[in-house]
Amino acid sequence: MSVARAAGRWRSLRTAGLLTLALGALLLSGCEGKASPLEDRLAVQGAVLLSVLVDDGEVVIEVGEPGAVVVSGSMDPDRYRYAAYVDESRVRLELRRTRSLLTLLRSGHAQLRVTVPPGTRLDVAASNGAVTATGPLGGGRLATSNAAIEASVIDGDLVATTSNGGVRVAAQHGAITISSSNGPVTVSHHDGGAVNIATSNGAVEFAGTIQLGTENSLRTSNGALVLTLAGDLSAMLDAATSNAPVASRYAVIDPQRGASHLKGRIAGGAATLKLRTSNGAIELR
Asked: Apex CA 186: angle with CA 63 and CA 153, to 5°?
């Protein structure tokens, strides 16, 4: 290879390398997202159904003044798009990530804080961010991933779903369904409606009532199940674990008992109560 040809090839490689470095620097310069405030106010009549859809962000819902849904929070305007829709008794809020190479490389997290009229029903779908709802609110659905869910003072059936996060519910009236993984579940001051809780690798603590005529299931793995029950319990009990005991303060009629299981009727057996875990004790208090 001649000296001139080798020199030309070296200049080409150097130019390509400099262009690559410049492109990398440009992309990296956009990786640090900027946070801008988010503010909106929507007029409504009475309690509404609030639907929320958020990508990679935290959602906080609280009770505010009647007649308005007030939105605040923060987002990177280059990474997110906000939209709000009002249709009679329904308000829909969206905070969606834009889809491009640059925005995918940018870091940053969004937060959506919403105050609603008392009694508002909820339909929340988030991802990679916690969901918190503080009432008095109506029932509904709360869903996220890789984060926790907390709800309190809820009058209505509630469905809470997450993964890799815990769930905490307090002062809820109505049927409750909780699905999680790799996180604990705590329910306190529950009454009315069936109880269905499923998680893994975390303890389940439930305090409340088991309503007559309902089918109830609480299950986890690698964690304890502790039920502190209010009022008189009347249920067909089916409790089983492994490598740990089952204990009940309630008298079990015609029991089938082993080291890690207990099955039988409590009082009139008017509800069903199925309890399952592994590597954790089961206790009815």
From this structure: 20
**What is the span of the domain harbouring residue 36?**
31-147
pLDDT tens digits, one per residue of 54-67 = 999 999 999 999 99
Residue 16 within any structural domain of the chain:
no
Asked if 217 contacts 274 with a C-beta cutoff of 8 angstroms, the reply is yes
Distance between CA atoms of residues 179 and 174, nearest Å: 16
Give φ, ψ of 176 to 5 degrees.
-135, 130
Q: Name the token pair of 151.
A: 């709800």
Residues 107 and 223 in one domain: no
For residues 275 and 126, give the distance between their C-alpha atoms in angstroms, rounded to a whole number.
30
Q: Which residues pair with 128 in a beta bridge?
A: none
| Whether the predicted pLDDT of 23 surpasses 70 | no
Q: 87, 120, 147 — which closes off a domain?
A: 147
Q: Is residue 131 part of a domain?
A: yes
Quote the number of domains for the chain. 2
